[in-house]
Amino acid sequence: MVGWPWLGVTFDLLRDPLGLLERMGREDGAISEMRYWRGSRVLLNDPALIEQVLVLQHQKFIKGVLLRLTAQRLLGQGLLTSEGELWRRQRRLAQPAFQRARLAAYAPAMVELTREQAADWRHGETHDMAAEMMNLSLRVAMRTLFGVEPKSESRAVGQALTAIMRRDLRRLRSPLRLPAAFPSPANRRAERGYALLESTVTRIIEEKRRDGAASDDLLSRLVEASGEDGARMSPRQVRDETMTLLLAGHETTALALAWTWYLLAQNPLAETRLHDEVDRTLAGRLPAPGDLDRMPYLAAVIQEALRLYPPAYTIGRSSIEPIELGGYHFPKDTVFLISAWVTQRDPRYFAAPTAFRPERWLGGASPACAAPQGESGGASPRPGAAAAAPEGFRYFPFGGGPRRCIGQPFALMEVGLAVATLASRFRFRLVPGSVVSPEPLVTLRPKDGIPMIVEERR
Ligand code: HEM
Predict the structure, then answer these.
(1) Residue 58 Cβ < 6 Å to ligand 1
(2) pLDDT at 35
(3) Backbone φ, ψ for residue 323 (5° rounding)
(4) Which of 163, 244, 289, 304 could form a disulfide with 358 if both were Cys (CB 3.0 to 4.6 A apart)?
(5) Number of domains in the chain
(6) Which atom of ligand 1 has the smallest separation from the CA of 80?
């Protein structure tokens, strides 16, 4: 790719990272390389090659350098960031707690907290649905993952994460940067954010320790579980897993919800079809996990929202040995990018790729809720579009292979129950004149929120 000799595409990366990724994926095809001041990155936009990296040759890769640089301070050696034997042990310990059948116990809390979130909403009021959904999913995470009641920090956690991601990503992308300790407004906001997250995690762990007896929340199950050697988690490991679950467990789910409302508001036909299905299935009562299997259109709506606005829009991997991919040889330490944003919007893999069409997932394709949950993962269901597309990974909002998202069933249950609960009472309209644009931080955030007008349906 053309760029300045040393800076490469640094300016594009700072100005419009999503546009840059898209151009690479469209113009340069299956494999494209970008150079910027920090080195180079190779974007893979081919389902078969993506499957090679995530599944078939996964043992030749570790997580990408970006995740390590941005997340290490927060997540330490938690499930998302650890490697090798430590990761394998933690994943084995955690897996049973994430099985769909066990997660059903959390459904009533998910529904109750959703209703509470909307309890004060009145017809005609404007709410920032991005902030509302962040707050909701954080409260759900606090209660179900940790068994503690959310306090006033709920809203501040979202802001803390934004400040951290904005500052840290800018430092990674730009060659001109102040030391992190320099007291600029951005640095001060980010450091305050780190302090807030740290104190939230400390509060969670202390409350659990004080309460003593093991409760039924996910963290307790994880801490109580011991490995084959009988060893329990060290205090440092408990801190890292708590922070990992807190962040991985609420941020992406909130974004999936927020983007779903945004897309529904712009597609009234889909919205009406969803309302019909929800009304018919629930007949005025609150949703339970079993209802989700009886609402295929709801599943398709969520699946389609995750296609167009994948919260984890890029996955990175670094090769730990030389590797051949697509006829090219890459040395050890090559950094590969795999982008759900690019591939899931590619016209080679999806007809009318930018259109919101939940129908494309109906008629034979199994909904996202039924995607494999096993250790090996695998390609997500085949959409009914682009019959000539090559096999493999065209749709992977939860990643794939051994490092596939462990929280997928949890997230899909939460999003499904929250959408069903709210859609049976409300519709949401974008405030006229507001511009909603995605901001690619570590996750795909709506840059200035999603201001929406609440309309009561009944
Ligand atoms: C819509 C919501 C979610 C999306 C889109 C999402 C997406 C992802 C993706 C793409 C990965 C793979 C990253 C990689 O391969 O580098 C991942 C991993 C992970 N996710 Fe999620 N996630 C979501 C919800 C959750 C929830 C609710 C939890 C926990 C309750 C969770 C916990 C994790 C963990 C612990 C990992 C690391 C797994 C491992 O490496 O073994 N996620 N997620």
Answers:
(1) no
(2) 76
(3) -145, 145
(4) 304
(5) 1
(6) 37
